[in-house]
Specification:
This protein is an alpha+beta fold. It folds into two domains: 127 residues, Gp5 N-terminal domain (OB fold (Dihydrolipoamide Acetyltransferase, E2P), Beta Barrel); 61 residues, no CATH class. It is 21% helix and 27% strand. The strands form four sheets. It has a five-stranded antiparallel sheet, with no helix packed on it. Strands 8-9-10 form a three-stranded antiparallel sheet, with no helix packed on it. A two-stranded antiparallel sheet has the order 4-5. Helix 3 runs antiparallel to helix 4. The longest helix is centred in the last third of the chain and has 15 residues. It is elongated and about 115 Å long. The chain starts with 8 loop residues before the first helix and ends with a helix. The model has no long low-confidence stretch (mean pLDDT 87).
Length: 215
């Protein structure tokens, strides 16, 4: 546009809309600063800067008291909770209207009352979104994996399971117990004797079944 040229109405409207959209937040990568497991609230730091037209980009402030989304059902009796800690990555989803009255209620329909919309104060944090260079390691294509530090549970599509990382692998311990029982002897009036043939046969069948579960 030539200096001192009167802007057209379409251009003015476009610039006004663009300027307003800079304050509309939808979804951002974020990092946990602090987390309270008793309330499932986190303070999170947005990891994308806000860029205003014609000025330098600025960092967004830490968002306090953000509810963390954990999978749950059954009225809260069934859930998965992870040991979220400072530095963990994820995303914040920004609600279209104020969450204040809904969060203070019992999960029913509410009037948001507050006029704000797409505001960072109405964010929800979902852990787990990671940059390419920080992708999870040792992840099989088809198996379900639950891991906590060195403790790892792996389940394949056929139902076989592996539990590793503890001082002893769980299924291996059970297998060893069955071996001990199969070879065990008990004291009787005529001296040490093994279990009856029927009992040993059953234990051997249990051992064979167990071995089909081990990856």
């Amino acid at each position: 546009m030539i200096e001192n040229e009167t802007p057209t109405l379409p251009k003015t409207l476009t610039e006004a809309i663009d300027a307003r959209l800079l304050d509309l937040h939808v979804c951002l990568p974020a990092r946990v600063e602090t987390y309270d497991s008793s309330t499932q609230k986190a303070a999170v730091k947005p990891l994308l800067k806000k860029k205003y037209k014609g000025i330098t980009s600025i960092e967004l402030s830490v968002i306090p008291s953000v509810p963390v989304q954990w999978p749950s059902a059954g009225g809260g009796n069934a859930y998965i909770h992870l040991p979220l800690e400072t530095g963990d990555l994820g995303i914040v989803i920004v609600c279209e209207r104020s969450l204040d009255y809904w969060l203070s209620g019992d999960g029913q329909i509410v009037d948001p009352l507050e006029p704000r919309h797409h505001d960072l104060s109405d964010a929800i944090f979902i852990p787990g979104v990671r940059p390419w260079k920080a992708a999870l390691s040792n992840v099989p294509e088809d198996n379900l994996v639950i891991q906590n530090n060195t403790m790892r549970i792996e389940l394949d599509p056929s139902g076989k399971i592996s539990i590793t990382g503890a001082s002893n692998e769980f299924l291996t311990v059970i297998n060893g117990i069955l071996d001990h029982l199969i070879s065990a002897q008990v004291n009787t009036g005529i001296g040490p004797m093994p279990f009856t043939n029927g009992t040993i046969t059953n234990l051997q069948a249990d051992k064979a079944d167990l071995e089909t579960l081990i990856i």
